[in-house]
Amino acid sequence: QVQLVESGGGLVQAGGSLNLSCAAPRNLFSVNYMGWHRQAPGKQRELVASITRNGYTNYADFVRGRSTISRDNAKNTMSLQMDSLKPEDTAVYYCNIGLGFTSIKDYWGQGTQVTVSS
Questions:
Q1: Would you list the DSSP string of 39-108?
Q2: How far apart are CA 91 and CA 9, in angstroms?
Q3: Which of 47, 58, 79, 108 sits in a 20 to 30 Å window from 64, CA-based?
């Protein structure tokens, strides 16, 4: 089992910013993609942003232009800077990694709450 450590969630006012961080074990090899998903009450989990090992990024439409995802391959860490937060961004945010390149296995963090007040 791979433990992912998430941090950076919390309560912020609309228009504010948060930086979410996720750390995988440093000695873990073959970390393919890393990403963040979110799940609001009563809704399905959805992709927020992801980044591949070579730095290719993908953003959901609802965060594109106001979020930046980055990673440090040497440390197996990832960050998501979110700006101009909206109340509809309120959700539990989950770190996700994919291990392997020919056969990929997904691992998930426990989630960190992000609450945006109006």
A1: E-TTS--EEEEEE-TT--EEE-TTTTTTEEEEEETTTTEEEEEE-S--GGG-EEEEEEEEE-SSS-EEEE
A2: 10
A3: 108
| CB neighbour list of residue 41: distance below 8 Å, 6 or more residues apart | none
Q: How far apart are CA 20 and CA 89, in angstroms?
A: 13
Q: 117 is written with which tokens?
A: 């007040």
* Measured distance CA(103)–CA(68) in Å, rounded: 28
DSSP state at residue 4: -
pLDDT, averaged in runs of 10, over the chain (118 residues): 94 98 92 97 97 97 97 96 98 96 93 97
48, 93 Cβ separation under 8 angstroms: yes
pLDDT score at 29: 85
Whether residue 22 contacts residue 36, with contact meaning beta carbons closer than 8 Å, is answered with: yes
